[in-house]
Amino acid sequence: GLQLQEALGADSIREAVLWLVNRAFQEPTPHHALLRDIITRCDVEGQKGSHVARALNVSARTFFRLRADAIAMLEQTAEQLLRRPEQRTDFKYEISRMISPVQPQTAAHLLEREADRVGSRAAYDAVCACARNGQEVPATLLDKCVGYWKPLAQLEIARTNLNHGDPERYQAVRPAILEALAGLTGAARTRVAFELAYVDRLNAIRQCDIQASADATARLRKEAGTDLRLQALALVCQAEQACDEGELGVASALLDELQTICLRLNDFRIYARTSHVTSILKLLQGNYAEARDLCDVTVAALGNVEPEFAACASALAGRADLLLGNTWERPGELCKRFPQSYVTALIDAVWARHVASSDAKRALAIAQRSADLASAQGARGVGAYASGTLAIVYEFLGNTEDARRQRVLTWELGVQLRRPFYLYDLLVHPALPGNAVSAFDLDEFTIAVLSRRFVELLADAGENPGPRWATAALVKCLEAALGQVARKRLSLPLRDRAHETSPPARRAAPLQRQVLTPCLDQIAVEIAYWLPPAHRSGFTSRFLAAASDLFEARPA
To answer: What is the CA radius of gyration of the chain?
Structure first.
């Protein structure tokens, strides 16, 4: 927009864009008229794509195809307009950018040399190549980034600091970026605001703060504006957020839309990020082989583009391999690049699970290192997963009591985080007994923790029946869900005390069905995370069938 305004000598970006639209779609044909209408509505008037699609009576798929065609024609027209006499000398700059995902060190060297001629955009690209390759960004290179390229470069460095386990430096530079943002307008402001929201979201993911990542995702959707590539990247984050919140149907629909957009945009980064989020969805759906294949694609594609997601995909591959019964090797090169990153802690938590069955003592050291690093990084989700790994390793070591308590504490921590990405296989290892009964140790300590969680859910819904009622309700439902063995495993004093109030609904204050039902649904899903995925559906069905008795009317 800024370059176009300067080239045309227009009074505003809007005036320049309108001229470009009229120039690109000047043929008096229905097709050109339709493309002009789409661009005018979306990019000039700011209407939402879904609204425009309905107004034009076309499907979302057709709308995105037409819009991508229109943008391609606009880009071609703009390229012809902006072509400079020295364009041939831009060849080195363009090819340097092209090789950056595969040879970042070489690209960084070439781009830095090109910055003196091409300007700030080449300097910014050089900063990105340096940072993503693990190189220190020279101050002289950062100084070559002027205008809005400066905060963009600072954000790239801040993001690298997050990847390297130094969130304090990211927090330190954020005020300066906000100050720079306040002085920007138009396309420059949109781009910086988008990248700031993207880095803020990465920080929220590190902390496993679902609400903060949701807020950042909403900002991404807003700040993407009319840039189709930014819109696609925001859509990737939206799909990832849906996976994080357990909305797998929503995630699947968004990814279907993204795959269509990928074919039109042919953007390397969007392809790779879509592959990454799709691998997460496939794992959560139980399609481990497909998840594994997509992880390989993601690691290969993002290693020098978004390395934190490449490392995350590598950890996901290890989880899928464990569930498939396959071997897996720790990605040493990625971990070497980011030794203090919370994602490296996740990789080690997965690696310890692979090692546990053959060398439990070594696995214990790896798992403890993972837990310590996650704690130091404030990464609560990885910390919960590492805690689950410790429980599994204790089991392999034969430390039954330590394993039991660790499992219970891990479960309590995990469900409070509310992130299925970690909960899915939090306590699962295929080499350990994991049927629907033996996964539970129904002693007083375990039941007390389950009861405490149930009371929390009820309190959040505005009800306070007390721990005694919650314990009685849980014992009743667990006995029904787990069968005869559960009744034997419940300690007699606990069972007797629970049945003093049985059936719970008849001796406790009656709760409204609309309040109790979602709380029971939630606690059933959460307890099921103790079990292997194949057993969860049956368990929750039996649990909720028993819970339906809680709605019986009190006798007259």
So the answer is: 27
For residue 53, the enclosing domain spans 2-83
Where residue 63 sits, what CATH number does that domain have?
1.10.10
Instruction: Let me know whether 111 and 229 are in one domain.
Output: yes
Cα distance between residue 309 and residue 273, in whole Å: 8
Whether 111 and 76 map to the same domain: the answer is no
Query: How far is it, in rounded angstroms, from Cα 396 to Cα 312?
Result: 26
Three-state DSSP class for residue 138: coil
- pLDDT tens sequence across 451-493: 999 999 989 888 777 788 888 888 888 888 877 555 555 544 4
Do 42 and 53 form a contact (C-beta atoms < 8 A)?
A: no
CA atoms of 265 and 382, how far apart (whole Å):
34
Number of domains in the chain: 3
The helix, strand and coil proportions of the chain, stated in percent and rounded to the nearest 5, come to 75, 0, 25
Phi, psi of 320 (to 5 degrees): -65, -45
What letter represents residue 432's amino acid?
L
Angle, helices 380-397/360-376, rounded to nearest 10 degrees: 160
Residue 296, φ and ψ in degrees, nearest 5: -60, -45
Q: Which of 484, 481, 479, 482 is nearest to 495 (CA)?
A: 479
> Are 115 and 7 within one domain?
no
Please state, in angstroms and rounded to a whole number, the distance separating the CA atoms of residues 180 and 194.
Answer: 14
Other Cβ atoms less than 10 A from the Cβ of 249: the count is: 9
Cis amide leading into 532 (omega within 30):
no
The tokens for 525 are 């899903």
pTM for this entry: 0.80
pLDDT, tens digit, 9 for 90 and up, residues 7-16: 555 556 777 7
End-to-end CA separation in angstroms for the chain? 75
In a domain, 209, yes or no: yes
Tell me, rounded to whole angstroms, the distance of Cα 546 from its chain centroid.
Answer: 35
Is residue 153's pLDDT more than 90?
Answer: yes
Q: Token digits for 35?
A: 């493309």
Q: What is the spatial distance between Cα 371 and Cα 349, in angstroms, rounded to a whole number?
A: 8
Residue 276: count other Cβ atoms within 10 Å of its Cβ: 24
Give the C-alpha separation, 111 to 22, whole Å.
35
Spatial distance between the Cα atoms of 92 and 510, rounded to a whole number of angstroms: 75
What average pLDDT does range 543-556 have in this prediction? 66
- d(C-alpha 247, C-alpha 249), whole Å: 6
In a domain, 398, yes or no: no
Opening angle at CA 379, ends 374 and 385, nearest 5: 70
Question: What are the two backbone dihedrals, phi and then psi, of residue 300, each rounded to the nearest 5 degrees?
Answer: -65, -35
Q: Do 457 and 437 form a contact (C-beta atoms < 8 A)?
A: no
